[in-house]
Amino acid sequence: MNIVGIESSCDETSVAIISDGKLVSNLIASQDFHTQYGGVVPELSSRAHLQIVSPLFKQSLKEAGLEIADIDVVAATAGPGLIGALLVGFSFAKGLAYSLNVPFIPVNHIEGHIFSGFLMKEKPEFPFLGVVISGGHTLLLLVKSELEIYKLGSTIDDAAGEAFDKVAKMLGLGYPGGPKIQQYAIEAEPSEIRFPVARTKSEFDFSFSGLKTSVLRYLQENFPDNNIPEKEKRKVAKAFQDAVVKALSKRAEKALKRFDVKSISVVGGVAANSGVKDGFSMLAKKYGKTLVIPSLEYCGDNGAMIALRGKQLFEAGKKFGFETNAFPALPHNHFLQSDV
Ligand code: KG4
Ligand code: ZN
Questions:
Q1: The CATH number of the domain covering residues in 2-114+298-336
Q2: For labeling, which of 48, 114, 160, 315 is most exposed (least CB within 10 Å)?
Q3: Cut 0.70: pTM above it
Q4: Under CATH, to which class is 123-293 assigned?
């Protein structure tokens, strides 16, 4: 069986093919031109998806050694994401499935991330603690099976990746900020700077907006003319990254004490961060859990995770008609912590 997965929710166009359970192609076209604007420009993103999605699909078929008629199922990101960007991949996929008369599976982008650890050789084991940390989302989840996802907590303000991007902007490091902050943090000399980890009403929720303000205040007080030496930028980047890692691992540790899980899986763009990896490695070791963090190409947005999630839903017998629209985007139920 050949499943195509198409992703276009933000600034990556990606087409992947899973053939008889094996990932045979995962092409990702990143829209790097947004860096000059300091963030993703939705209109430009949609136009770029439109230009690349069709050639990327053809290239993916070629890489997989398949003909268009060999496709059995088409899956595409239905949301959440930028509406114009989503509609490009979604409508392309729907049209493809319609013309081939094969099933079409709309996939929730976050669910794609949640199960992206299953693209690795060492896979998470159910039940696992899912930590989704991306540019748009920060979620702590108890994942009991492919169809039972319980939300324990989420951010009450900024997403983790958003905080990385905003702090990078304050430091004049450009967009996307995550990789830059990481690099600066690695090169930082030891320092006394500590930023506080915010408390939240619910023990599993996150908050990063206060941390962002603390960084801003620190910079305004110490560098009122906004002339920040590179050496100081590195120290601030490190202290900020440490605070994010602490906030994430503190909530995860609480969840590990409460719920009996076999694995921890940290996914999404921020899971690529070396400080985050180190923090969760220590936590997993302390509690005797296996830790699964996807490799770099599967941490960021990719079609492989969409194809995989499409496969799971298809095999679970989930049926979707062609009348399915991009919104509402949740293909199936999400449960809250109170249901655990
Ligand atoms: O999952 P993703 O590619 O897109 C969304 O669905 O949002 O995540 C993008 C986010 C951006 O905010 C980016 O700055 C962050 O992931 N990111 C990182 C790193 N690489 C990407 N954050 C921290 N450290 C990194 N190495
Ligand atoms: Zn994402």
A1: 3.30.420.40
A2: 315
A3: yes
A4: alpha beta
